[in-house]
Amino acid sequence: MRFVILGIAVLCAVNIQAQQQNWKGKFEQLGEVLPTPNSYRTGSGSPGPNYWQQRADYVINVEVDDKTQLLTGSETITYYNNAPEALNFLWLQLDQNVFGPDNMTDKTETGAVRDSIPAAFLGYVSGITVSDYKGGYTIKSVKDAGGKALPYVINNTMMRVNLPAPLKTGEKFTFSVDWSYKEYNRQVFNGRGGYEFFPEDGNYVYTFAQWFPRMCVFDDYEGWQNKQFLGQGEFALTFGDYKVRITVPSDHIVGASGVLQNAKEVLTPDQIQKFETAKRTFDKPVIIVSEEEARAKEKTKSTKKSTWEFHAENVRDFAFAHSRKFIWDAQAVKVGNKTPLAQSLYPKEGNPLWGKESTKAIKNALEVYSERTIEYPYPVAYSVHTANQGMEYPMICFNGGRPNKDGTYSQQTLFSTVMVIVHEVGHNFFPMIINSDERQWSWMDEGLNTFLEKETMRVRYPELAGTRGTPKGIVPFMKGDKSQMRPVMSTSDNIRPNEFGPNAYTKPSAALTVLRETVMGPELFDRAFKEYAERWAFKHPKPADFFRTMEDASAVDLDWFWKGWFYTTDNVDIELADVKWFKVKNETVDPEKKNVKTKKGDLAAANTANTSPSKDFSNGPQDFTLLNTPESNYGEFKSKVDDNGIREKLRDKNIYELKFKNVGGLVTPIVIEWTYKDGSKEIERIPAEIWRINENEVTKVFVKSKEVVNIVVDPNAELADVETSNNSFPKNTESKFDQFKKDKN
What we know:
Strand content: 25-35%
Distance between the termini: 67 Å
């Protein structure tokens, strides 16, 4: 007994030492890289028993001047402190200050002077701003519920409001802010809201985003969200209820986050009747405001005002759009027991494309996303047409995709329009409901959403579905210069702008596709992904919550996967370095009379034939001798192995020894396509764990009944292998990447 215990102790010591020496190995657990589980966030990836989050309710009155583009607003915020600590101050986001004087974004913008720069691109290329626009908030007052002024400090895009007394756990505080700012021309400033001016008819389309001072997130993970808004990293926001009154010219149509409360005050009787009909119509959109009506309003331009009132419950933000140019159509969508109203607003410049595709795309997105995550909980979903844009908010999104002036459009325009609408509507789920921190981790909303956008296109638009967000589509990026890349787990503002799309959108989507199709399988993946959505709906998940939930709900250890795809810039490049073909020699050899060292289970140990790499199968199989088992191998066992029986089972079998090299560094499953002499094919899948002992090179033996004439690794481009010219045997000199570049998709 003492001997056994000593042996175990020595073995444990050796294992611990090995782990300490190789803790950075690709198959070691993430360990301390992830935050320690606690009563707020558990090791399983679930919200803990003491999980908490803050809440903020808003009552807002806002007016937009159609002549000056000035927005004037007054809001009352009720902030609920559910944190287990008192707060001495509150932080608000002032995102419009990104356009204000002395803003950090302009000061840190890099660029260079280049000859022959188009004037419209001057700011993007060189950072030179020549506009006379004066942006940023004018904060007129900050007061408590009794009307007493509250002291505040503005730090670039954030404002700290000092409280008269600590706000204790379970208490709430009500205060008001009055402000204004001038909306910007989005053709000049690359913002998320803004207006578009139409010179031919002298009208505007307005999209208002980040338009009001909003509460920052205070959570268990880092306290107050304290990263300034620099333009790329998006938003961390708190859930609450909104009551918003929007005053605009009377001939404008308004769409917003939430449900219209006063239709009888702002719509004509005919519009109300069509609006109500749309709520019961499931097969096609109902035209509420026609193109003919919109064209007539473009000319008359009412000078009167109307106030539209919208209510939105349990949302993290609020946006709205309005114009007299808007055509309006809507139809109901069946989602579980709910019937949300899908609505599209678009000027005549969007037709006929938008009339055909927008509301249909909303419907498709809501249905597919609801199947994969949670049933869409909100009562409405808007898609609003603007030029060259794709931006999302609760229940409303702003989307580009414009036909030619004569109404024609290309297949590419059709694809990009449908894709962006599906994508932005999909953002209702990530991050508007599963509410991740976009300022920190763009991939948690953009990557997960791009994955489901890709799935929606694959399922509902197979004729349009391309390679965006797929392993095949990410190959050119993964093949690039690693020294210029950042890992997916990078803060949003620290990713190079020209790599932001692949890094935050398509690489995470490709990774999830590999995870679903190759590593886990659709059934395990879909259940785990849905579990994550259900656990964190209307909460604030972090990366560890996603990683842990996917493992918890599937019983698949994925630390190696997260480490490779999300924490490094490694790529997949498997080289099929060597193939050897053997057949068992049909004779009995006594090991006692043959000077051969044997190892249990090593079929090729007795082979002393040529070991140089093969180029093809033309030389035929090598013989190897299957020895009778030496008596010394039996040890204390009394029974004997049937050597002749084993030899008989392997008679006429083809034994192939394959050597794989991990050139790219990213460990991956291995997918092998075997082509046999009779023309048949077989796909064989090897889990990524094959690399767990040697991450650089592995050799594996396969026994086949048929003779093999061709072997290909990753035949269907499902692994994102960046260099497939080294994936074949006999050797193939043409890279599949070169073939991909020829692919129309």
